Amino acid sequence: MANQQLSPQKAANAPVKKNIVRNRVEPVLFNTFNTVFMIFLVIVTLYPFLNTIAVSFNAGNDTIRGGIYLLPREWTLQNYKAVFASGTIYNAFWITVARTVLSTVLNIFLTTMLAYTLSRREYAFRKPITLVFVLTMYFNAGLIPGYFLIKDLNLLNSFWVYILPSMVSAFNLIVIRTYIGTLPESLVESARIDGAGDFKIFMQIIFPLCKPVLATIALFVAVGAWNTWFDAFLYTSSTQKLSTLQYELMKLLSSSMNSNSNPNVAAGAGMTQDSATAMVTPLSIRAAVTVVASVPILVVYPFLQKYFVVGLNVGSVKE
C-alpha cells in the first residue's frame, strides 16, 4: 500500500509536468488550426477571381459544358479579341483614366481642405456646416431632380459632368476630419507662432501628415470613378467620344446576353457569324469583361496597401 502512494516531491512535480506539456502543445495546435483556416480563407477568396480568369481564356462553346475551375480546358484569346474588337473601347479607356485621375486628385485636395477648415475649433460655423454635409448622406433629392440640376448647369454631354459632382464627398470629409483631429494641436500652434497662415499650415503640415488616410480615400474614390457607368448612361450617352470604359463594357455585355453572339463583335474581331457563335458566348464575354475592368485597379492596389491598412484604423485609437 505504501509503495502505491506517490512521494510528496513526485506529487508536487506532476502538475508542473502537465503544465509544461500543455504549454508546448497549445501553441502547436493553435498555429496549425490558424494556418489551415487562413489557407482555406485565401482559397475561398481567390477562387472566384481565378475561375473568372480561367473562363475568360477558355473557348466559349466549351465553357457552356461547365467544369471550368482554375485552368482553361481549351485555351483561346477570342474572348478578349471580341472585347477589344470595337475601336470605341480605346477612346473610352482614356476617358475613364482621365476622369479617374482628375476625380481622385480634386476630391482629395478639396475634401481635405474643407476637412481641415471644419476641424478648427475657432471656426464658429463648423458644426452647422458639418451637419449640412452629414444630412446629404441620409437624404437625396432623387434621380429626376439631379438630372435637371445637371441640365441647368449645362453639364449634359460634357466631360466635366464626370468631375464636378464628385469633387467633395461627405463621407470622405468625416473620415479626413476625424484623422486631422488626431494630429497634435501643438504643430499648428507652433506654426502660427512662426507666422504661418492657414493655407501654409494646411499645405506644409496638415496635408503631408494625412498621407495614410488620403491614400485610403484615394483608393475609394479611384475605384468608384473607375467602376461607375450610370452617369455616362444618363448624361453623355448621346456623345460617343465621351463614353467610358465601363459603359462600353456594359453595352457589350448586354448585347452578348441578348443573343448568343454579337454580329458587330464578330465582324470587328474578323470572324464569321458561325465561328463567333462557336467561340464567343455570353458567359465567356462576361468573364473577359470582368477581367478587363478589374486589372487596372488590381495593379494600383499593392502600392496603396500599406496606407490602406493604416487608414482603416483612423480614429480607432486616440491618445
UniProtKB/TrEMBL annotation:
Protein name as annotated: Sugar ABC transporter permease
- Show the InterPro entries listed in the entry: MetI-like (IPR000515), MetI-like_sf (IPR035906)
Task: Spell out the PROSITE patterns in the cross-references.
Answer: ABC_TM1 (PS50928)
Indicate where this protein resides in the cell.
Cell membrane
Positions of the ABC transmembrane type-1 domain:
93-304
Q: Which PANTHER family does the record match to this protein?
A: ABC TRANSPORTER PERMEASE PROTEIN MG189-RELATED-RELATED, POLYGALACTURONAN_RHAMNOGALACTURONAN TRANSPORT SYSTEM PERMEASE PROTEIN YTCP
* Family named by the database record: Belongs to the binding-protein-dependent transport system permease family.
Any Pfam family the entry gives: BPD_transp_1
Report keywords, A-Z.
Cell membrane, Membrane, Transmembrane, Transmembrane helix, Transport
Gene Ontology, cellular component aspect: plasma membrane
Q: Which Gene3D superfamilies match?
A: MetI-like (1.10.3720.10)
